[in-house]
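User: two proteins, same treatment. go.

Assistant:
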Amino acid sequence: MLPEHSLSPSAVRPDLNSPGWNELGVTLHDGGGTLRVWSHRAEAVELVLFDETDIDWIVDTVPLTPVGDGVWQATSPGLRPGAHYALRVAGPLGPGNMFNPLTLLLDPYARGLVGVESENWRSSVVDTAFEWGGVAKPATPLDRTVIYEAHLKGLTKRHPGVPPALHGTYAGLAHPAAIDHLLTLGITAVELLPVHAFATEPRLRSLGLTNYWGYNSVGFFAPHSPYATAASRIAGPTAVLREFKDMVKALHEAGLEVILDVVYNHTAELEIGGPRTSLRGIDNRAYYRQDPDGAYIDETGCGNAVNTATPAVSRLILDSLRYWANDVQVDGFRFDLAVTLGRDDSHAFTADHPLLRAIVDDPALAGVKKIAEPWDVGQGGWQTGAFPDGWLEWNDRYRDRVRNFWLSDIDYARRASVSPVGIGGFATRLAGSARTFTRARGPLAGVNFVTAHDGFTLHDLVSYEVKHNDANGEHNRDGADTNRSFNHGPEGATGDEGVLATRRKAMRNLLGTLLLSAGVPMLTAGDEFGRTQHGNNNAYCHDSPLTWLSWEHADWQRDLAAHVRRLIRLRAENPALRPRRFDHAVVEVPDASVIDWYDAHGDTMSNERWTSPDHRTLQYDARSTPNGEPANRVLLIVHGNEQPIDVTLPRVDGVAGFVSLWSSADEVPDDDEEAFAPGTEIRMPGTSMRLFRAEQASA
């Protein structure tokens, strides 16, 4: 039995590397395989083996024996690649226990699953051998990372260059046509919405809907088989895993990283009374957060919360991460509702949680990008900026301030004839969110985003005032009510060319801000083309053309994509836009950007102009302090109201002139790099941005 203190990390820091928990799941060897399962409270565990062609036909049962540390073990010649198996677990009755010796359960460490979207799942033994052919991870530095958040199926489901048999599959993303789009765009990493095996909730199935996004994990080690080609699905889980690895290999050969959105905070077993497929039947009390009477403490809003105060449960998550990072060679993880993972045995978040520390300190995860979604729905659930060194965080404060500046502030100004706030808060986000992330962590601790899978698309953000989720079956009650969006006049589709032009410029301003800000930018797939979901800001339950990317584009959409390509290229070419560290007022910091701020007259920004709603124009002068790259300096003009203004370029020591690189006012990116002398007046149209490269004066 496990010592009692091992279930109480706040009392004694547990050893998440206990040797007793090594090699859980199935280990293959000559003569079959050995299965090891952890359950703290089980009284008996049984292996059930099924016919390889009929997952309901039991061909053998083998009892597991306890071997210490809560681990049960059995060896069988039937545990060979292609075998289907399940567990049956018996245990005591009492509050919090859900043992039933008749229920067939999944092995939490299963590398493959078979079955349909019901409770009729089976674990499968998988041959994990794969030839990587010397292809290594790209290991893209954080300052050069540009993340592209995409749905695995939706990205290629309608791609005309991908063969129909590969549409919406792992092989489809590995196809040269899909990779060519990513490379042409200039992104460096694809962040895939959940690809761990997941299920659709019974409520959605009853409505004829599906869990499209995949935030409803059934297993933490098995790839979602419906995303594999028909040929791989027919061949079985080993072929599905091989197709996934082929995708990773192809993306790596192209220099692209693969980041997985992982859901370790809850499972598809939902609330008490929901499906009993794995953890609930193996040791409900240990795996899920509960009150003493057995009622679930739901920190996720999804019915349950996985209990990382149990060391063996934290080890399960660590082992899953190690598997995907090493056996499958993925480059990083975005942790859904990561605050839940950092809650202790009193259910309070602590940045010093053993699991959060272990993820960062684990040598097996060295070099892997770790991105937290720094909130959940529990008490004290909003923790942006609070994660420890080594973690990146989705920066929702950046998202909200940028949306406010370009959208809701403009809406307010139209109604009230005055802007609600000045430009100071926006400038803080542009320069790397130093008020959110410590100097030790630096600007690259923040993953900047304006849109994500959850919420309005970029197009809909500038086209809809309110959400339109009527097709979700919840009477438009689901999804965020506060979107900081602005429709610029009419709601949704319009033929008014003036409104459409203003919306296009608003999208360019949002994209320009995202891709020119300090921090790690994340672009949502389809935003480069202005994709719409017709005002649905919570399209998680639609596996349809509503959510699949369209590859048929109007001229304005192609022009918008050209702006994105230009901005990503300019970011790569100008290290002043991507500092690794925050500047210091007294000493020069290598790999930082020294920032000076000027107003519309070319004068140093005064305190009054930072805060006054009457002054929403600034010039952002950033000079790199390079360590391995040539010196670089840029000037970015931001004008945040709808009245045009004349801006005087600043007279800066050492700068001979400014070369125009990009303007959000242009419908099509301008290739003419026009040069301007310091002190020149530049006409800035309403709500616009313009980027310059500063040319050094000759000595």
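Protein 2:
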Amino acid sequence: MNLIRSDRISRISESVSFYSLLYFLVAFPLSVSASQVLAGLCIFSFLFSLRENGPKLKQYLLPWAFILGAYFLVFLSSLVHFQEYSHFWKTFTRQSEAGDFWLALIFPIAAFHSSKEENQKKIYQFLWISFSLLLLSGIASVFSEYRLGKFISNGFHPAPGDRRQHPAGPLFGFQTYLPIGLMNTHLTYGGLLSFYLPGILLLTFQSLKEKKVPKILFLSILSFLSLWVFLLNQSKSAWLGIAAVFGFVLLGSQESFRAILSKIQLKRALVILLLVCIAGISIRFLYQKNWLLQRTVSQLTEIQTPENQRYWIYKLSLPLLIKNPILGVGGGRFKEESTKEEVPLITAQEQLWYELYITPNKHAHNDLLEFAIVGGWASAILWILFFYLLFKRIDSDKLVKGSFPLLGIGFIWVAGFFQCYLLDDEVALPFFALAGILWGRGKKIESKPSPFALAFICITFLLNTGFWIWRLSTPFQLAYARQIFAESSHYTKKLEKAVFPFRSASEEREKRLTQSIEVSSKEAGSEFYLEGCLTHRYPNPAKLREEPYSIGFYISPTAKNPPKKVRIIVFSEESFDEDKLYWSHRKFDLGSEELNLGSGWDSYVWKESIGLSKITIFPDIVFFRSFKIRFADFDPEKPVQIPAIDLGDLCDFKL
């Protein structure tokens, strides 16, 4: 009797767990809270069926052990550094990376449910529903100035103080915004879309060998809409991750793709070519009409961009890795420890104070680096081993007919070189669930090594390492540059070359002194904004700056058509932290002057004109003194040689 009752409880628990998993797939594109509740129910209810189903989990224990091992090493490191925490349990439970281990509990359970043939059809259907909800919410958010998740939860009314969407530019007369679906950030949404996008594209490609034109058109439209939303999303790390996944699939499936292509008839090939041309022209049109996409592409090869924050984050991270290579610094302590590494840089150059302050340093923005720092290198190595097994599984599953391809979950490997997706609960939880589904529905992987998956993991890792070794070899004096805003990107780039770096970069300063920077007369006559310096001095609490602000302009004696005058307006600009970075900031002019320019150096000096607090806690009541500059009095019929501009180290130019 007890055995019958136990079997009944086990079957009911298994059924509750399975349907919780299905509804979790529907919930995670819509609500973080609901998805976590359903994931918790899936895990908890499955526990009552462990007696019967526990032995069936053995084949999934190795990859799961790598995941849990990585989290355990972070916990172990935290215990070793117990005395260094001011409030251990508070910090550990709220901030530690090891606290996310529960997310991974869904991995073997999802694999178990997916391994049953009677479940696979329903899972397939719910994956389609999940993708559809994700795509539709993303498209809706493109045209909403409000963040849809909070907007809906507030009864379709914006709450006071809620951040608006990031503008993406006009499209056919409509204002568009970075798509975030119902998530809180565009990076999270980009990560979720990445799980499905490669699968949709692969299904589209597979449909080409069929004679069902409606299916081809339907999947092509889905692919186009998905790519459009994905490009607008602006998650460059996800872009790289998806590109890497496609590279892995294409290199590993050349024979399969050739077989598909050989069955495509001429008529269908022409239809495909037409669709590709339409998609290409549409993407080109979107790129030409969208300044955000243009800026993003142009930033990929530049160091002085918003992504330059990675430079500072990694610059502060590497000393932590060197000092604590075995056990790491402990969970939840990255920000505390990396902040200590800022002091030498700011002491060497005070202008970096603000730059480092607005650089988000809650984590390393690199999954492997984060776990290596907080849990030691062994923790990061366990993640590498897990991803090796993941790509072995992707390699065996990517072209299975009748299933929704989940190869997109592999995007986290390369994307994780630039973002901490494994620390983002909204992305990590679906990742473990989808990875489990992928693992369970396929055949058992052979135990022998996969040279192709191993080569992919090693090559991508080494490429990333080599890239950052090269990038971090740039001295901090040259990695920093003042923000400049001009009416054209071309003029902005020219001005960036004209502004001198810090005095310690003597060779670069000499180089810029001798170079001739030529722009059109229209550009030279337009106004540009040049970032200045703070009203208060380091450290914190900050003291009011006492010395005046000064700028130097240098015109080469050999310049043929330099400006003979410059108009300078000093304006006040609010300082802000990273959470306020995307708001509009109050600006007002403080004074203006027209300066005559001659051959050689000319200087402009401005003294503070407003009574400010003598001592304050940064960034409260701390402002920027920045400059609007416009050159004048030159021959408008000829190109203009703009002057070199020197602000010294801290708006303290001296002849």
